[in-house]
């Protein structure tokens, strides 16, 4: 007996027939061992395929006592049943099964027990599965692949001994595993208490699709199962018709019968009626759905439960959903994208973007059907928007129908007022296909054909930059998508900008890489010089202010403490501003900066700059509050208490401010894009490097960030203004009470007008920074570069004007500064005199 291509599996039935699975020939053949006749095909035509009369690389086979043949159709990811004498098979497990079974990947071996329950080595899923009284379940290898005792790695062969223990050849681990039969694993359920429910399925009952890929032609009745004690229960069905039972937990969706399904049983298991042994819990909703094995069948039935306690069975009504249908064709005039295949050619993948609009937040079941099975389609669902340059961005889910002509229903939670984009494309490049999308839910779904193209026109020149993207050459003027300024990054690595601008956004595209500072554009040279001037002026102002408030007489009250700390914060602010400016310039000029340095600067510098800036203005506001309190209390003002309170504020306030900014370093990230060139396939050099420091906010965080910006910018101004007005009014009232003269408010206003001018000036100077912080990230900066630069630099001028704003208008502060400066000059003169005297001796 010769077999041309070998047998991957052999089986001998009770009549002494030998079966051989010829995998390379895609056929199962049979021969009677008691004669010399040739082997004849009993399953498949010998042609590779996925039809019911075809196989694709069959491996495991099993023949039961009825001479029915079971075949592990490996590359079709299914198990086929060929009833004795039939040429067409039926899928009893795996892909394309009409019944609800189990998903398989390259099943290898199969076996049946005495009750005709199927055992399958699901090699691709690294597990052994089996059917049972409650449907299919996983036996071993249920926790992913691995080398541990309870795990499997590509199991192929398995067998049972006389005790029921299972031996598995684990090919990926080169070992044979033994799994012991747990004889006490099946709990004995008491049959003392019974509950019976009787009804009749009629043509007035609702219908649904019990099987996948079919119409709703099965009458059903939904029954709630309610228990009063946590325990095991038996549910059995009895009828003169062939019943099919499903048990669901929490919810039953007629449009997606696999969702929430915990047990199913029927004639596909070679049983006429259903019988479940389940552990049911109190306060948990269970739904038993009774239907029929065949379509359009009606008749009486009864359900009986057994257990230690009675179970209550009540009929419930399942709200029928609404079917929304959309049919179209992915054609050659649709939008497309390219993808390089192994041959180096770039096929076009046409796609159809369809917007889904739902009127209420709920669960929706999506069902796709493709017209041409040989083509297949890929389905993707996006939230908010679809970016063809980065097809993983905003992606909620992706499914493919490349091997079968229908996709199992997908259940997804869709929210009202959220834009969802369904993108359908072909599995094969340069091809078109028709498809139908059905969405089942309690509410209607609207389909709207949309577009992902953005209109843009420009001229590409020889000076434009180029990049390599897998591996097509594309010429761009900039690495920002010029059709919309929302995007940053290279074409293979794109992110969407959020609200607000930083110095990085304003100057990044103006810096010439691999050039010295003297070869940079005029705008870089001017802003660099201006930054140095601001730094020098800020350092001088801050040191003068610190020199003034070092006087012990001014630090006897909290106001002097606040202004001293504010002077230090101003110095830190202008210093950090200068460091950040040159960090941006240097990192954009050089292409050799480490990514860790870029990430560290991105996450820390802007946050520290805001921290110092906000501390500065809030300490000034604290000084204004204390000035007003001092005026209000007059001689009863407690200086010691004020000083003690100020020390606590100086300690606590920076912590509070930092807590409002803690989200920024967590949400900041660096997008690094490097352009390289290969020289003779030997040397690789970096031509350009572009890095973006961006912040991506969720909607709640964005609202929170906006509120924080307003609080930090407007809060100190309001406090300064009202404290100054209160100070002037109180001083005026007291002087009027002393002299009975009504002109003193005007006099007080003239004497203390700097108290009103200062907060107003600080507000005007900080408004540009507030606007820049809240502008949309999609704004085109390059068109008004000088406007944004001017606004950004002006917003930091308060940090270099603290001496001018607070000390120069005050006679007492000016006097204290002169005295401190004179003391320093005298000390220097004395030191010089001592040095000269020592030199003479």
UniProtKB/TrEMBL annotation:
<feature type="transmembrane region" description="Helical">
    <location>
        <begin position="611"/>
        <end position="632"/>
    </location>
</feature>
<keyword id="KW-0472">Membrane</keyword>
<feature type="transmembrane region" description="Helical">
    <location>
        <begin position="786"/>
        <end position="808"/>
    </location>
</feature>
<feature type="transmembrane region" description="Helical">
    <location>
        <begin position="644"/>
        <end position="662"/>
    </location>
</feature>
<protein>
    <submittedName>
        <fullName>Uncharacterized protein</fullName>
    </submittedName>
</protein>
<dbReference type="Pfam" id="PF01436">
    <property type="entry name" value="NHL"/>
</dbReference>
<keyword id="KW-0325">Glycoprotein</keyword>
<keyword id="KW-0812">Transmembrane</keyword>
<feature type="transmembrane region" description="Helical">
    <location>
        <begin position="710"/>
        <end position="733"/>
    </location>
</feature>
<feature type="transmembrane region" description="Helical">
    <location>
        <begin position="526"/>
        <end position="549"/>
    </location>
</feature>
<keyword id="KW-0732">Signal</keyword>
<dbReference type="InterPro" id="IPR011042">
    <property type="entry name" value="6-blade_b-propeller_TolB-like"/>
</dbReference>
<dbReference type="GO" id="GO:0005576">
    <property type="term" value="C:extracellular region"/>
</dbReference>
<feature type="transmembrane region" description="Helical">
    <location>
        <begin position="561"/>
        <end position="591"/>
    </location>
</feature>
<feature type="transmembrane region" description="Helical">
    <location>
        <begin position="754"/>
        <end position="774"/>
    </location>
</feature>
<feature type="repeat" description="NHL">
    <location>
        <begin position="42"/>
        <end position="85"/>
    </location>
</feature>
<dbReference type="InterPro" id="IPR001258">
    <property type="entry name" value="NHL_repeat"/>
</dbReference>
<keyword id="KW-1133">Transmembrane helix</keyword>
<keyword id="KW-0677">Repeat</keyword>
């Amino acid at each position: 007996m010769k077999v041309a291509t070998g047998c991957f599996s052999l089986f001998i039935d009770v009549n002494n027939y030998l079966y051989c699975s010829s995998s390379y020939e895609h056929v199962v053949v049979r021969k009677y061992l008691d004669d010399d006749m040739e082997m004849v095909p009993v399953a498949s035509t010998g042609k590779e395929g996925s039809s019911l009369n075809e196989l694709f690389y069959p491996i495991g086979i099993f023949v039961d006592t009825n001479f029915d043949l079971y075949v592990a159709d490996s590359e079709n990811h299914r198990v086929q049943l060929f009833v004795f004498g039939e040429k067409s098979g039926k899928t009893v497990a795996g892909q394309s099964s009409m019944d609800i079974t189990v998903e398989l990947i390259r099943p290898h071996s199969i076996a049946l027990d005495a009750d005709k329950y199927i055992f399958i080595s699901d090699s691709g899923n690294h597990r052994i599965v089996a059917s049972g009284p409650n449907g299919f379940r996983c036996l071993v290898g249920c926790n992913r692949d691995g080398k541990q005792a309870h795990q499997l790695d590509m199991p192929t062969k398995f067998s049972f001994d006389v005790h029921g223990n299972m031996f598995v050849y684990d090919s990926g681990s080169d070992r044979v595993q033994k799994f012991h039969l747990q004889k006490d694993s099946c709990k004995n359920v008491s049959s003392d208490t019974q509950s019976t429910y009787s009804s009749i399925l009629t043509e007035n009952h609702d219908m649904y699709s019990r099987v996948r890929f079919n119409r709703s032609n099965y009458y059903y009745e939904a029954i709630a199962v309610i228990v009063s004690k946590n325990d095991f229960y038996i549910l059995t069905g009895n009828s003169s018709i062939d019943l099919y039972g499903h048990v669901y937990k929490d919810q039953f969706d007629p449009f997606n019968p696999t969702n929430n399904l915990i047990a199913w049983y029927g004639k596909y298991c070679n049983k006429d009626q259903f019988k479940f042994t389940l552990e049911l819990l109190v306060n948990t909703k269970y739904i038993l759905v009774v239907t029929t094995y065949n379509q359009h069948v009606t008749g009486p039935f009864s359900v009986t439960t057994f257990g230690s306690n009675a179970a209550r069975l009540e009929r419930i009504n399942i709200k029928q959903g609404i079917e929304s249908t959309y049919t179209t064709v992915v054609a050659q005039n649709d939008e497309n994208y390219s993808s390089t295949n192994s041959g180096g050619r770039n096929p076009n993948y046409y796609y159809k973007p369809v917007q889904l609009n739902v009127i209420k937040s709920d669960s929706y079941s999506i069902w796709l059907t493709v017209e041409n099975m040989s083509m297949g389609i890929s389905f993707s669902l996006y939230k908010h928007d679809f970016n063809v340059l980065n097809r993983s961005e905003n992606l909620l889910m992706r499914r493919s129908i490349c091997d079968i002509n229908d996709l199992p229903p997908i259940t997804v939670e869709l929210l009202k007022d959220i834009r969802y984009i369904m993108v359908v494309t072909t599995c094969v490049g340069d091809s078109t296909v028709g498809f139908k999308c059905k969405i089942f839910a309690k509410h209607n779904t609207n389909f709207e054909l949309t577009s992902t193209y953005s209109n843009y026109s420009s001229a590409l020149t020889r000076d434009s930059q180029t990049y390599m993207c897998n591996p097509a050459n594309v010429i761009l003027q900039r690495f920002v998508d010029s059709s919309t300024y929302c995007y940053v990054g290279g074409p293979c690595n794109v992110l969407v900008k959020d609200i607000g601008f930083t110095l990085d956004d304003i100057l990044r595209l103006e810096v010439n890489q691999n050039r010295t500072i003297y070869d940079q554009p005029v705008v870089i040279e001017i802003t660099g010089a201006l930054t140095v001037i601001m730094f020098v002026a800020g350092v001088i102002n801050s040191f003068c202010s610190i020199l003034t408030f070092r006087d012990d007489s001014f630090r006897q009250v909290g106001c002097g403490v606040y202004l001293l700390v504010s002077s230090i914060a101003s110095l830190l602010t202008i210093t950090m501003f200068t460091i950040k400016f040159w960090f941006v310039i240097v990192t954009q000029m050089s292409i050799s900066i480490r990514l860790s340095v870029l990430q560290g600067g991105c996450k820390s510098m802007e946050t520290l700059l805001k921290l110092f800036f906000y501390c500065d203005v809030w300490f000034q506001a604290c000084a204004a509050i204390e000035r007003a309190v001092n005026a209000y209390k007059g001689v009863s003002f407690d200086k010691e208490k004020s000083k003690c309170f100020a020390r606590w504020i100086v300690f606590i306030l920076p912590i509070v401010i930092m807590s409002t900014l803690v989200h920024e370093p967590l949400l900041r990230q660096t997008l690094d894009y490097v352009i390289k060139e290969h020289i003779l396939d030997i040397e690789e050099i970096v031509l350009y490097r572009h890095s973006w420091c961006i912040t991506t906010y969720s909607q709640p965080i964005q609202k929170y960030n906006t509120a924080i910006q307003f609080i930090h910018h407007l809060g100190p101004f309001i406090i300064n203004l009202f404290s100054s007005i209160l100070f002037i009014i109180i001083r005026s009232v007291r002087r009027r009470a002393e002299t009975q003269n009504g002109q003193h408010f005007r006099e007080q206003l003239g004497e203390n007008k700097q108290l009103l001018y200062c907060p107003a000036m600080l507000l005007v100077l900080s408004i540009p920074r507030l606007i820049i912080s809240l502008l949309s990230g999609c704004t085109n900066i390059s068109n008004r570069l000088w406007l944004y630069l001017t606004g950004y630099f002006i917003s930091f001028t308060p940090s270099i004007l603290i001496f001018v704003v607070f000390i120069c208008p005050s006679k007492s502060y000016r006097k204290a500064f002169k005295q401190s400066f004179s003391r320093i000059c005298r000390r220097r003169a004395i030191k010089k005199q001592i040095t000269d005297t020592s030199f003479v001796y």
